[in-house]
Amino acid sequence: MNRYFTVESGEGERIDRYLAEELTDKSRSYIQKLIKNGCITINNKPVKANYRLISGDQVEITFPDIAEPDIAAENIPLDILYEDADILIVNKPKQMVVHPAPGHYSGTLVNALMYHCGNELSGIGEYRRPGIVHRIDMDTTGSLIVCKNDKAHLSLSEQLKEHSIYRVYEAVVHGNIKEDKGTINAPIGRHPTDRKKMSTYAKNSRTAVTHYSVLKRFGAYTYIQCQLETGRTHQIRVHMADIGHPIVGDCVYGPRRCPFPKLIGQTLHAKTIGIIHPVTKEYLEVTAPLPDYFSKLLSYLEQSQQ
Questions:
Q1: pLDDT tens-digit profile of 229-266?
Q2: Are 198 and 234 in contact (CB under 8 A)?
């Protein structure tokens, strides 16, 4: 399968970074492999991963045949919020990695999906990511869409690219946010020195916009809702830390020591997701209930106020 397009924005950006943002269902490492194997050409010529784009460049991508997944199907219970012949939306728990990666080759969402769906998952993307069109962090809970066929995958990838998917998160952050609502418009890119982190001070950052509103204040902490206009890696975590209100439990972008010892990872929940269904073309919205860890923290903060 080949794909063609003309570069209209992103002049001066590396081709591998540019394509990783354009092709939302592909990782940057996968794109780099395609470039290395000569599967990506610019103006009919092979290029290296550090090629800098020029407006008007003609890009051709030749995708190799999809390899059969060697992922073990595992009978892991799934909290399914919605399912039909084309997609399913799951409520991902804490500590579950979305797809296999070094250090996490079992117990992932994909392992569970292989058992639940069998051969019904979309084959677009890397062979270790069948059906996965987007992802959330290991310690972020909530709504995640999975595609059962390539038509659904392509439709949802396009919606992601156009930023038309409705995504609402809830979080508890450090500090008392004085404003009832606000918008954070700060581009995000890979951290210049720590490659595992993202930053608003990175070169070749991408536009990132988060709208937030206060749900309740607890003195030293604030319960908020965030709506994503874009969907960059770690976006809410980076943005809230950037304005001085890191998410409680986020030891990467916030305090290294969590004030609540029993809390594992950031208090961030992908509550609601809304899409145009890839087949019916009707709007579909699904909400994931708050997990126990989140509800218990809210109850504790409520009691502390009394």
A1: 998 999 999 999 999 999 999 999 999 999 998 899 99
A2: yes
CA dist., res. 84 & res. 121, Å (int): 12
Q: How many whole angstroms separate alpha carbon 10 and alpha carbon 296? A: 45
- Token pair of 175, please? 């500090």
Q: How many residues does the chain have?
A: 306
- Residue 212 CA to chain centroid, in angstroms? 18
Extract the tokens encoding 170. Answer: 């809830």
Give the count of alpha carbons within 13 A of 27, CB side only: 12
C-alpha to C-alpha distance for 169 and 224, rounded to whole angstroms: 8
65 is catalytic: no
**Which position has the token pair 């890696």?**
233
Residue of 25, 57, 86, 137 marked catalytic: 137
Instruction: Tell me how far apart the alpha carbons of residues 15 and 148 are, in angstroms, rounded to a whole number.
Output: 30
pTM for this prediction? 0.79
